[in-house]
Each structure stands twice: as C-alpha cells, then as structure tokens.
Specification:
Length: 246
C-alpha cells in the first residue's frame, strides 16, 4: 500500500488529507471517505486502507481543518461531557453543508491531477455527521459522483435549508442509505419519513435499516461494534462502488 498525508488546497486553506491506494495496477477510481463527528483517528485510517486494498484511490480529509491543526481528539472524545468531547463539539456544531461541498470539489480536482487516480466517476461515503454531506455531494456534483453512501447519517431530514432530503432527486448516481435500528440521531419516525421521500424522489438506490444494531455499528473500536453488520456494510459499500466506479 502507498500512503501519504498532505494538505490539499481549498478556498479556505489546506485540508489535511490521508491518501492511500494499492502499490501496483493503477490508476484506481477515487473514493472519498468522510469522517464521523469524533474526527480523524487511526480507526478511520484503517477503514481507508481496507477500501484501498480492493482497488480504490481513497481520500480521507480532516473536515475540521478550518478550526486549525489541533482538531484530532483523544479517546475521551466519545465520553459525553469530557474535555475532549466539549472541544470537539465546539467545532462540530459550526459545521454546515455548503463549505464541505467546496472541500469535496477541491478533493475531486486534486484527484483528477494524480496519475494514480483514474479520471471519471467518483465515489463518496460518510459516517454519522458526514452521511448528509455524502448525499448532498451527490446532488451538488451529479456529473462526477456516481455513487454515494450514508452510514447512520444524522438528521437526514431536518428544517435546515441545506437538508439533504430536499435534493435527493438531483443526484444521478446510485445512493445507498444505511440506518441503524437504534439511533437517537436518526430516530425511526425520521427514517420512515426519509424512506417515503427517497421513494418519491426518483433517486436510484436503496435505504436499508439494519436490525438490532446501534449508531456507530461499523466502527471496530466503538462499544456498539457489530461484526456481522459491519461486514455487511463493507459488502454493500464495495458492491456499490464496483457497480458504479469499476
């Protein structure tokens, strides 16, 4: 595997990005892995590596970069009320969709210039807070993003002007929305409403609710990690990318 960390230029500065891809056989289709609220950590690096090993040029950006370099948090970030959790929330609560769309454009532009990255369709998938970003990106860049997935995305239906449920029909690529049965950030009533809106939008793809599992089930270091559901998540994601990116 080839790995590197570098700052990719955006209109707001340099977005620190972990990039990995196989050593041989490229170029590879680009895939953007968008982080969850606790932020960049080794767990996410490992998930990027796993995806890269099956033939993708994976970019994992630190979406908190506008708040500075000190935006990687310790293990206590998962403990509500801890100093690290409060420090993360101070950044997280300021996040909105429009600037992240600018970041995604910059990441795609960077990938287009790399010989290891195949020109053409792009994939994007996000966890937790980034589920909405992935879906919004598919609608914002329909001619580039051929596949987008949201894994236990938070508040996919909301009163926000940029709520992703409003633009589902603008996506040309295939969408996959994965929800956990137990999720305070995507409660059952919201998921039911989203399913109706998704079906009515004409968007290609699927909304799937995974039974018995909790928000965060795909993260190996999370208390709620569920191996069968996590492996299913990889199956769904890789199949999605195979169908649409190659």
């Amino acid at each position: 595997m080839i790995e590197k960390v570098l700052d990719i230029p955006t209109r707001d500065g340099g977005i620190e990005t972990f990039i990995c891809h196989p050593e041989r056989g490229g170029p590879y289709p680009p895939a953007l892995l968008l982080m969850d609220a606790p932020g960049i950590r080794e767990e996410l690096y490992d998930m990027a590596r796993r995806l890269a090993t099956v033939g993708y040029y994976v970019l994992l950006p630190n979406l908190y970069y506008r708040a500075g370099k000190d935006t990687k948090y310790g293990a206590d970030v998962l403990t509500h009320g801890s100093a690290e959790h409060q420090r993360m929330r101070a950044v997280r609560t300021k996040m909105t969709i429009p600037p992240v769309m600018d970041d995604i454009a910059a990441l795609i532009a960077y990938a287009d210039q790399q010989r290891e990255s195949k020109k053409g369709p792009v994939g994007v998938h996000g966890y937790c807070m980034s589920g909405p970003y992935a879906l919004a990106a598919a609608a914002r860049y329909p001619d580039r993003i051929a596949a987008a997935a949201s894994f236990y995305g938070t508040w996919l239906v909301s009163d926000a002007v940029e709520s992703p449920h409003l633009t589902l029909g603008k996506a040309k690529g295939e969408l996959y929305i994965s929800c956990a049965e137990h999720d305070d950030l995507a409660p059952p009533d919201m998921v039911k409403e989203l399913k109706k809106l998704f079906d009515a939008s004409g968007a290609r793809g699927e909304l799937e609710v995974h039974p018995t599992v909790h928000h965060g089930f795909a993260f190996p270091q999370r208390w709620c990690y569920d191996k069968p559901a996590a492996e299913r998540h990889w199956e769904r994601l890789i199949a999605l990318y195979r169908r649409n990116l190659g």
